[in-house]
C-alpha cells in the first residue's frame, strides 16, 4: 500500500457520516403503532397533523383504539410538548359562528375559551377529517386541569374532553 493511498484513507475516515435526524415518537408515530397510556394499550388507527401553510406541524392528534373503544391523544407542540388524553363527546352545533366563549357541559363543568385558530390538516388512517383542508380549532380550559377541544370542518363538529397527560408516561412501540 502506498503512502499516498494510506494518507487518503486516513483523511476520508475523518469525515463524519451524514447523521439522521433523531426520531421523536410524539411526532413520528404512525398508524399501526402501539401506545401505552395510563397502563392501557392502544393501537393508533388514525393520525391528524395540524399546521399553518409553509410552517412545520404544531399539533398532532392520534386516534387510539382499544377494542371497540376509540380515544384521542392530542399533542400540542410548543417549547415543550403538551399531551392530552381525550374522550369524544357527542353534541352538535349548526354554525361555527355560534361557538360560545363559555361552555357548560352537563351542568358539571364550565369551560372558558383559551384560544381559537384555523389550521390545515393532513390525515392518515381513520380520522374525522379530510386531508389537506382547513379545520377550525377551539381550545377550552376548565377547573382541575380539565380541557375541552372543539373542531369543525365543512359542517362537521368533533368535540373532545380530556386531561393533561405527561409525555413521559406515554410508551411507544413501533408496529410492523
What layout of secondary structure does this protein have?
Blueprint (H helix, E strand, L loop, with lengths): L2 H11 L11 H4 L5 E4 L2 E12 L7 E8 L2 E9 L3 E9 L12 E4 L3 E17 L7 E9 L4 E8 L2 E10 L4 E4 L3
Antiparallel strand pairs: 1-2, 1-11, 2-3, 2-7, 3-4, 4-5, 5-10, 6-7, 7-8, 8-9, 9-10
Structure characterization notes:
The chain has 176 residues and is mainly beta. It is built from 2 helices and 11 strands. The chain has an 8-stranded antiparallel β-barrel with strand order 2-3-4-5-10-9-8-7. A hairpin with a 3-residue loop joins strand 4 (69-77) and strand 5. The longest helix is centred in the N-terminal third of the chain and has 11 residues, at 3-13. The radius of gyration is 21 Å and the shape is elongated. The relative contact order is 0.20.
Question: Can I get a quick summary?
Answer:
The chain is mostly beta strands and 176 residues long.
Task: Describe this protein with a few key phrases.
mainly beta; elongated; eight-stranded antiparallel barrel
The residue fraction in helices comes out at under 10%
| Estimated share of beta-strand residues | over 45%
Cα distance spanning the termini: 46 Å
pLDDT < 50 stretches: none
Q: Please state how the strands of the largest beta sheet are arranged side by side.
A: 2-3-4-5-10-9-8-7
Shape: elongated
Amino acid at each position: 500500500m502506498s503512502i499516498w493511498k494510506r494518507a487518503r484513507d486516513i483523511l476520508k475516515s475523518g469525515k463524519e457520516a451524514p447523521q439522521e435526524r433523531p426520531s421523536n415518537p410524539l411526532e413520528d408515530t404512525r398508524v399501526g403503532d402501539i401506545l401505552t397510556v395510563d397502563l392501557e394499550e392502544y393501537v393508533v388507527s388514525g393520525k391528524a397533523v395540524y399546521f399553518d401553510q409553509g410552517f412545520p406541524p404544531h399539533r398532532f392528534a392520534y386516534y387510539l383504539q382499544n377494542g371497540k373503544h376509540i380515544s384521542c391523544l392530542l399533542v400540542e407542540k410548543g417549547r415543550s410538548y403538551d399531551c392530552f388524553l381525550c374522550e369524544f363527546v357527542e353534541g352538535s352545533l349548526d354554525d361555527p359562528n355560534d361557538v360560545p366563549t363559555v361552555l357548560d357541559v352537563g351542568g358539571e363543568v364550565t369551560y372558558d375559551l383559551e384560544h381559537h385558530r384555523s389550521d390545515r390538516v393532513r390525515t392518515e388512517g381513520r380520522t374525522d377529517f379530510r386531508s389537506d383542508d382547513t379545520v377550525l380549532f377551539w381550545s377550552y380550559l376548565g377547573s382541575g386541569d380539565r380541557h375541552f377541544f372543539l373542531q369543525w370542518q365543512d359542517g362537521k363538529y368533533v368535540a373532545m374532553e380530556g386531561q393533561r397527560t405527561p409525555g413521559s408516561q406515554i410508551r411507544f412501540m413501533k408496529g410492523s
